Amino acid sequence: MKVGLIDQIKGEISVMRLIRHPNVVELYEVMASKTKIYFAMEYVKGGELFNKVAKGRLRESAARKYFQQLIVAVDFFHSRGVSSRPET
After folding, report:
1. pTM here?
2. Does domain 5-79 have CATH number 3.30.200?
3. What is the mean pLDDT of residues 78-84?
C-alpha cells in the first residue's frame, strides 16, 4: 500500500461514522481482512448515480435534482470543517 494510505482511509472512516445527513449514505460498520476492507452502508433505493449518468444524458430536471443534493451535502461537510481534495 502507498505510504499514508492507511491513515487516509482511517480518517475518512472516522468522518463517515460521524456524519448524518439525508444526502449522504450512512456508514454502519467497517470490517477488514489482511487484503480487503468491507463497508456495511445504508441501502439506497434506485441504484448508483454513476450508473444513471453512464446510461446517457439525464433529463434536465433530474440532473438539477441530483446536483442540488450534491451541493447541499458538500456544503454540509464544509460547514463542519471536512473538505475533499484530489487524490495524488
Report:
1. 0.71
2. yes
3. 83
Q: Which ranges constitute the DSSP H helices of 2-59?
A: 5-18, 49-54
The DSSP bridge partners found for residue 37 are 32
| Residue 58 to residues 42, 63, 67, 74, Cα–Cα distance (Å) | 25, 6, 11, 21
Which residue in the block uniquely carries the three cell numbers 449514505? Answer: 25
Amino acid, res. 84: S
Strand residues in the chain grouped as ranges (E): 27-32, 37-41
pLDDT class of 66 with cuts at 50, 70, 90: very high
> What is the residue whose three cell numbers read 484530489?
86
